[in-house]
Amino acid sequence: MRALQLTDVGHLELVERPLPEAASGEVLVDVLACGLCGTDRHIVRGEYPSRMPLVLGHEFGGRVRWSAPGSSWAPGDLVSVDPNISCGGCADCRAGRVALCPDRHALGVDIDGGLGEVVVVPETQLYAIADVDPLHLAFVEPLACCLRGLDLAELSGGESVAVVGGGVMGQLTVQLATRAGASRITLVTRQAAKRELAERLGATDSCTPGEADGLSRTFDVVFECAGATETVTQSMSLARRGGSVILLGIPPEGQTIPVSPFTLVVDELRVQGSFLNPVTQARAADLVGSGVLDLDPLISRVLTLSDVEQALSTAPSGGDIKYVVRPAEME
Ligand SMILES: [Zn+2]
Ligand SMILES: [Zn+2]
Protein backbone atom coordinates (compact mmCIF):
# COMPACT_ATOMS: atom_id res chain seq x y z
CA MET A 1 0.00 0.00 0.00
CA ARG A 2 1.03 3.60 -0.51
CA ALA A 3 1.16 6.16 2.29
CA LEU A 4 2.42 9.69 2.67
CA GLN A 5 4.91 9.71 5.49
CA LEU A 6 6.29 12.70 7.33
CA THR A 7 9.87 11.60 7.93
CA ASP A 8 11.24 14.89 9.28
CA VAL A 9 10.16 18.51 9.66
CA GLY A 10 9.25 19.75 6.17
CA HIS A 11 9.86 16.37 4.59
CA LEU A 12 6.98 14.28 3.24
CA GLU A 13 7.67 11.05 1.40
CA LEU A 14 5.31 8.88 -0.62
CA VAL A 15 6.27 5.35 0.43
CA GLU A 16 5.25 1.82 -0.49
CA ARG A 17 4.67 -0.19 2.68
CA PRO A 18 3.37 -3.63 3.60
CA LEU A 19 -0.28 -3.69 4.70
CA PRO A 20 -0.50 -2.83 8.40
CA GLU A 21 -1.71 -5.50 10.81
CA ALA A 22 -4.66 -4.93 13.08
CA ALA A 23 -4.47 -6.16 16.68
CA SER A 24 -7.42 -7.27 18.75
CA GLY A 25 -9.96 -4.45 19.03
CA GLU A 26 -8.74 -2.86 15.81
CA VAL A 27 -9.92 -2.94 12.20
CA LEU A 28 -8.31 -2.12 8.87
CA VAL A 29 -10.00 0.69 6.94
CA ASP A 30 -9.60 1.50 3.23
CA VAL A 31 -9.43 5.29 3.31
CA LEU A 32 -11.86 6.83 0.82
CA ALA A 33 -11.36 10.49 1.76
CA CYS A 34 -9.10 12.49 4.02
CA GLY A 35 -9.31 16.24 4.50
CA LEU A 36 -6.26 18.47 4.85
CA CYS A 37 -6.34 21.22 7.46
CA GLY A 38 -4.24 23.89 9.12
CA THR A 39 -3.10 21.45 11.76
CA ASP A 40 -1.45 19.33 9.04
CA ARG A 41 0.45 22.40 7.80
CA HIS A 42 1.57 23.16 11.35
CA ILE A 43 2.74 19.57 11.86
CA VAL A 44 4.74 19.58 8.60
CA ARG A 45 6.42 22.85 9.59
CA GLY A 46 7.26 21.48 13.05
CA GLU A 47 4.92 23.99 14.74
CA TYR A 48 2.65 21.36 16.29
CA PRO A 49 4.05 18.41 18.25
CA SER A 50 3.78 15.09 16.46
CA ARG A 51 5.51 11.74 16.23
CA MET A 52 7.84 11.03 13.31
CA PRO A 53 7.84 9.12 11.05
CA LEU A 54 4.11 9.59 10.79
CA VAL A 55 1.32 9.17 8.27
CA LEU A 56 -0.65 12.43 8.60
CA GLY A 57 -4.41 12.82 8.21
CA HIS A 58 -6.98 13.14 10.99
CA GLU A 59 -10.13 14.04 9.02
CA PHE A 60 -11.02 10.80 7.28
CA GLY A 61 -13.34 7.91 6.71
CA GLY A 62 -13.63 4.89 4.51
CA ARG A 63 -14.74 1.27 4.28
CA VAL A 64 -13.83 -1.47 6.70
CA ARG A 65 -11.40 -3.75 4.86
CA TRP A 66 -10.81 -6.32 7.59
CA SER A 67 -12.20 -6.97 11.03
CA ALA A 68 -11.49 -9.75 13.51
CA PRO A 69 -14.01 -12.58 13.89
CA GLY A 70 -16.63 -11.51 16.43
CA SER A 71 -16.13 -7.81 15.74
CA SER A 72 -19.25 -5.67 15.48
CA TRP A 73 -17.80 -4.23 12.25
CA ALA A 74 -17.84 -6.09 8.96
CA PRO A 75 -15.85 -5.63 5.77
CA GLY A 76 -17.64 -3.13 3.53
CA ASP A 77 -19.11 -1.03 6.38
CA LEU A 78 -18.84 2.68 5.61
CA VAL A 79 -17.32 4.45 8.62
CA SER A 80 -16.19 7.83 9.81
CA VAL A 81 -13.33 7.99 12.28
CA ASP A 82 -12.96 10.04 15.46
CA PRO A 83 -9.18 10.53 15.43
CA ASN A 84 -8.90 11.52 19.11
CA ILE A 85 -8.25 8.66 21.48
CA SER A 86 -8.52 9.43 25.18
CA CYS A 87 -7.65 7.13 28.07
CA GLY A 88 -11.16 6.71 29.45
CA GLY A 89 -9.88 6.40 32.99
CA CYS A 90 -8.60 9.81 34.15
CA ALA A 91 -10.69 12.31 36.12
CA ASP A 92 -11.42 14.38 33.00
CA CYS A 93 -12.43 11.36 30.91
CA ARG A 94 -14.70 10.10 33.69
CA ALA A 95 -16.32 13.52 33.88
CA GLY A 96 -16.98 13.46 30.12
CA ARG A 97 -14.32 16.07 29.34
CA VAL A 98 -12.42 13.71 27.08
CA ALA A 99 -10.82 16.51 25.01
CA LEU A 100 -8.92 17.51 28.15
CA CYS A 101 -7.50 14.02 28.80
CA PRO A 102 -3.76 14.39 29.49
CA ASP A 103 -3.13 11.05 27.76
CA ARG A 104 -5.11 11.91 24.63
CA HIS A 105 -3.41 10.94 21.40
CA ALA A 106 -4.65 11.12 17.86
CA LEU A 107 -4.59 9.31 14.56
CA GLY A 108 -2.68 11.48 12.11
CA VAL A 109 -0.80 13.27 14.90
CA ASP A 110 0.70 10.66 17.23
CA ILE A 111 -0.14 7.47 15.36
CA ASP A 112 -0.56 6.80 11.64
CA GLY A 113 -3.62 8.50 10.14
CA GLY A 114 -5.64 8.72 6.94
CA LEU A 115 -3.12 9.80 4.29
CA GLY A 116 -2.49 6.20 3.29
CA GLU A 117 -4.51 3.68 1.35
CA VAL A 118 -5.14 1.54 4.44
CA VAL A 119 -5.09 2.53 8.11
CA VAL A 120 -5.42 0.66 11.40
CA VAL A 121 -8.22 2.12 13.54
CA PRO A 122 -9.30 1.09 17.05
CA GLU A 123 -12.96 -0.04 16.93
CA THR A 124 -13.83 2.49 19.63
CA GLN A 125 -13.08 5.31 17.15
CA LEU A 126 -15.44 4.13 14.40
CA TYR A 127 -18.87 5.59 13.65
CA ALA A 128 -21.22 4.06 11.12
CA ILE A 129 -22.41 6.45 8.45
CA ALA A 130 -25.12 6.23 5.80
CA ASP A 131 -24.09 5.70 2.17
CA VAL A 132 -22.86 9.19 1.26
CA ASP A 133 -20.56 10.61 -1.38
CA PRO A 134 -17.24 9.29 -0.02
CA LEU A 135 -15.72 12.79 -0.23
CA HIS A 136 -18.17 13.91 2.46
CA LEU A 137 -16.48 11.58 4.97
CA ALA A 138 -13.74 14.21 5.28
CA PHE A 139 -16.22 16.65 6.84
CA VAL A 140 -17.39 14.57 9.81
CA GLU A 141 -14.46 15.49 12.08
CA PRO A 142 -14.54 19.28 11.47
CA LEU A 143 -18.33 19.19 11.72
CA ALA A 144 -18.07 17.42 15.08
CA CYS A 145 -15.85 20.29 16.31
CA CYS A 146 -18.46 22.83 15.12
CA LEU A 147 -21.31 20.90 16.76
CA ARG A 148 -19.40 21.07 20.02
CA GLY A 149 -19.20 24.86 19.62
CA LEU A 150 -22.93 25.06 18.85
CA ASP A 151 -23.71 22.99 21.95
CA LEU A 152 -21.66 25.38 24.10
CA ALA A 153 -23.47 28.40 22.59
CA GLU A 154 -26.86 27.00 23.69
CA LEU A 155 -28.80 28.70 20.90
CA SER A 156 -32.54 28.48 21.47
CA GLY A 157 -33.64 30.26 18.28
CA GLY A 158 -33.97 33.90 17.29
CA GLU A 159 -30.43 34.95 18.21
CA SER A 160 -28.20 37.26 16.24
CA VAL A 161 -24.97 35.43 15.44
CA ALA A 162 -21.65 36.54 14.00
CA VAL A 163 -19.29 33.96 12.50
CA VAL A 164 -15.75 35.27 12.21
CA GLY A 165 -13.73 33.37 9.59
CA GLY A 166 -14.97 31.91 6.30
CA GLY A 167 -13.02 28.64 6.15
CA VAL A 168 -14.53 25.20 6.59
CA MET A 169 -15.36 25.74 10.27
CA GLY A 170 -17.01 29.09 9.53
CA GLN A 171 -19.05 27.75 6.60
CA LEU A 172 -20.20 24.72 8.60
CA THR A 173 -21.04 26.91 11.60
CA VAL A 174 -23.16 29.18 9.38
CA GLN A 175 -25.17 26.12 8.31
CA LEU A 176 -25.55 24.83 11.86
CA ALA A 177 -26.60 28.25 13.20
CA THR A 178 -29.21 28.46 10.43
CA ARG A 179 -30.59 25.09 11.46
CA ALA A 180 -30.56 26.18 15.11
CA GLY A 181 -32.91 29.05 14.23
CA ALA A 182 -30.63 32.07 14.49
CA SER A 183 -32.50 35.07 13.08
CA ARG A 184 -29.42 36.91 11.87
CA ILE A 185 -26.13 35.32 10.81
CA THR A 186 -23.33 37.62 9.72
CA LEU A 187 -20.13 36.15 8.30
CA VAL A 188 -17.03 38.27 8.80
CA THR A 189 -14.05 37.62 6.55
CA ARG A 190 -11.75 39.45 4.17
CA GLN A 191 -12.37 37.18 1.16
CA ALA A 192 -15.35 38.14 -1.00
CA ALA A 193 -15.75 34.59 -2.37
CA LYS A 194 -16.15 33.23 1.17
CA ARG A 195 -18.68 35.91 2.06
CA GLU A 196 -20.72 35.10 -1.06
CA LEU A 197 -20.57 31.38 -0.32
CA ALA A 198 -21.73 31.90 3.28
CA GLU A 199 -24.70 33.91 2.05
CA ARG A 200 -25.61 31.03 -0.29
CA LEU A 201 -25.35 28.62 2.65
CA GLY A 202 -27.60 30.53 5.04
CA ALA A 203 -25.86 33.69 6.29
CA THR A 204 -28.28 36.63 6.21
CA ASP A 205 -25.43 39.05 5.52
CA SER A 206 -21.66 39.34 5.55
CA CYS A 207 -18.98 41.95 5.85
CA THR A 208 -15.24 42.55 5.96
CA PRO A 209 -13.40 42.82 9.31
CA GLY A 210 -13.15 46.59 8.69
CA GLU A 211 -16.90 46.89 8.22
CA ALA A 212 -17.47 44.73 11.32
CA ASP A 213 -15.74 47.39 13.43
CA GLY A 214 -19.01 49.30 13.11
CA LEU A 215 -21.00 46.37 14.56
CA SER A 216 -19.42 46.21 18.01
CA ARG A 217 -21.57 44.94 20.85
CA THR A 218 -24.43 43.88 18.57
CA PHE A 219 -24.42 40.05 18.49
CA ASP A 220 -25.88 37.60 20.98
CA VAL A 221 -23.32 34.96 20.06
CA VAL A 222 -20.02 35.21 18.19
CA PHE A 223 -18.27 32.12 16.84
CA GLU A 224 -14.56 32.70 16.27
CA CYS A 225 -13.56 30.26 13.51
CA ALA A 226 -10.34 31.80 12.19
CA GLY A 227 -7.89 31.21 15.02
CA ALA A 228 -5.86 34.42 14.68
CA THR A 229 -5.24 36.83 17.53
CA GLU A 230 -6.83 39.76 15.62
CA THR A 231 -9.98 37.76 14.89
CA VAL A 232 -10.25 36.71 18.54
CA THR A 233 -9.94 40.37 19.56
CA GLN A 234 -12.59 41.38 17.04
CA SER A 235 -14.90 38.54 18.13
CA MET A 236 -14.80 39.80 21.71
CA SER A 237 -15.77 43.29 20.54
CA LEU A 238 -18.73 42.02 18.48
CA ALA A 239 -20.58 40.26 21.32
CA ARG A 240 -23.29 42.36 22.92
CA ARG A 241 -23.39 43.00 26.66
CA GLY A 242 -24.34 39.68 28.24
CA GLY A 243 -23.38 37.86 25.04
CA SER A 244 -21.15 34.86 24.38
CA VAL A 245 -17.96 34.38 22.39
CA ILE A 246 -17.23 30.78 21.41
CA LEU A 247 -13.61 30.24 20.35
CA LEU A 248 -13.34 27.39 17.81
CA GLY A 249 -10.25 28.41 15.83
CA ILE A 250 -6.89 27.41 17.29
CA PRO A 251 -4.63 30.49 17.59
CA PRO A 252 -0.83 30.15 17.57
CA GLU A 253 0.44 28.95 20.94
CA GLY A 254 2.10 31.61 23.07
CA GLN A 255 0.48 34.67 21.48
CA THR A 256 -1.52 37.02 23.70
CA ILE A 257 -4.10 39.77 23.25
CA PRO A 258 -4.95 42.76 25.43
CA VAL A 259 -8.22 42.17 27.29
CA SER A 260 -10.09 44.68 29.42
CA PRO A 261 -11.14 42.80 32.55
CA PHE A 262 -13.41 45.75 33.38
CA THR A 263 -15.36 45.18 30.16
CA LEU A 264 -15.57 41.43 30.77
CA VAL A 265 -17.14 42.09 34.18
CA VAL A 266 -19.47 44.98 33.54
CA ASP A 267 -20.61 43.62 30.16
CA GLU A 268 -20.92 40.09 31.61
CA LEU A 269 -19.21 38.65 28.54
CA ARG A 270 -18.84 34.90 28.38
CA VAL A 271 -15.73 33.76 26.51
CA GLN A 272 -15.70 30.01 26.04
CA GLY A 273 -13.08 27.85 24.35
CA SER A 274 -14.30 24.86 22.35
CA PHE A 275 -11.70 22.16 21.74
CA LEU A 276 -12.16 19.09 19.55
CA ASN A 277 -15.14 16.85 19.31
CA PRO A 278 -15.52 14.90 22.52
CA VAL A 279 -19.15 13.89 22.35
CA THR A 280 -20.41 15.03 18.99
CA GLN A 281 -18.85 12.63 16.46
CA ALA A 282 -21.92 10.36 16.23
CA ARG A 283 -24.21 13.33 15.63
CA ALA A 284 -21.79 14.70 13.03
CA ALA A 285 -21.78 11.34 11.21
CA ASP A 286 -25.60 11.29 11.26
CA LEU A 287 -25.80 14.86 9.99
CA VAL A 288 -23.35 14.24 7.13
CA GLY A 289 -25.12 10.93 6.40
CA SER A 290 -28.51 12.67 6.23
CA GLY A 291 -27.34 14.84 3.34
CA VAL A 292 -29.00 17.99 4.72
CA LEU A 293 -25.79 20.02 4.80
CA ASP A 294 -24.39 21.61 1.66
CA LEU A 295 -20.86 20.17 1.54
CA ASP A 296 -19.98 20.09 -2.17
CA PRO A 297 -19.34 23.88 -2.35
CA LEU A 298 -16.79 23.47 0.48
CA ILE A 299 -14.59 21.11 -1.58
CA SER A 300 -12.09 23.34 -3.35
CA ARG A 301 -9.78 20.61 -4.66
CA VAL A 302 -9.76 16.83 -4.80
CA LEU A 303 -6.20 15.48 -4.60
CA THR A 304 -4.32 12.22 -4.85
CA LEU A 305 -1.56 11.31 -2.38
CA SER A 306 1.04 12.55 -4.89
CA ASP A 307 -0.47 16.05 -4.83
CA VAL A 308 -0.40 16.51 -1.05
CA GLU A 309 3.20 17.62 -0.51
CA GLN A 310 2.79 20.49 -2.99
CA ALA A 311 -0.65 21.39 -1.57
CA LEU A 312 0.68 21.53 2.00
CA SER A 313 3.83 23.47 1.20
CA THR A 314 2.07 26.31 -0.62
CA ALA A 315 -0.38 28.70 1.03
CA PRO A 316 -3.99 27.94 0.10
CA SER A 317 -5.36 30.52 -2.33
CA GLY A 318 -7.82 33.11 -0.99
CA GLY A 319 -11.18 31.55 -1.74
CA ASP A 320 -10.20 27.92 -1.07
CA ILE A 321 -12.14 26.13 1.67
CA LYS A 322 -11.18 22.44 1.88
CA TYR A 323 -8.81 20.11 0.07
CA VAL A 324 -9.91 16.49 0.14
CA VAL A 325 -7.50 13.65 -0.66
CA ARG A 326 -8.56 10.30 -2.13
CA PRO A 327 -5.68 8.10 -0.96
CA ALA A 328 -6.61 5.05 -3.05
CA GLU A 329 -6.70 7.09 -6.25
CA MET A 330 -3.62 7.11 -8.49
CA GLU A 331 -2.55 10.31 -10.21
ZN1 LIG B 1 -8.17 19.28 11.27
ZN1 LIG C 1 -8.25 10.45 30.13
Describe it.
- The protein has 331 residues and is an alpha/beta fold.
- It folds into 2 domains: 2-141 and 277-325, Quinone Oxidoreductase, Chain A, domain 1, CATH 3.90.180.10; 143-273, Rossmann fold (3-Layer(aba) Sandwich), CATH 3.40.50.720.
- The protein has helices at residues 38-44, 91-94, 140-153, 168-179, 192-200, 209-212, 229-238, 261-266, 281-290, 305-313; strands spanning 2-8, 11-16, 26-36, 54-55, 59-67, 78-81, 84-85, 105-106, 118-122, 126-128, 160-164, 184-188, 205-207, 219-224, 239-247, 270-273, 299-303, 322-325.
- The strands form 4 sheets. Strands 3, 5, 6, 9, 10, 17 and 18 form a 7-stranded mixed sheet that branches. A 6-stranded parallel sheet has the order 13-12-11-14-15-16, sandwiched between helices.
- α4 (168-179) links the parallel β11 (160-164) and β12 (184-188).
- It is globular and about 60 Å long.
- The mean pLDDT is 95.
- Bound molecules: zinc ion (2 copies).
- The site of one zinc ion has 4 residues, from loops.
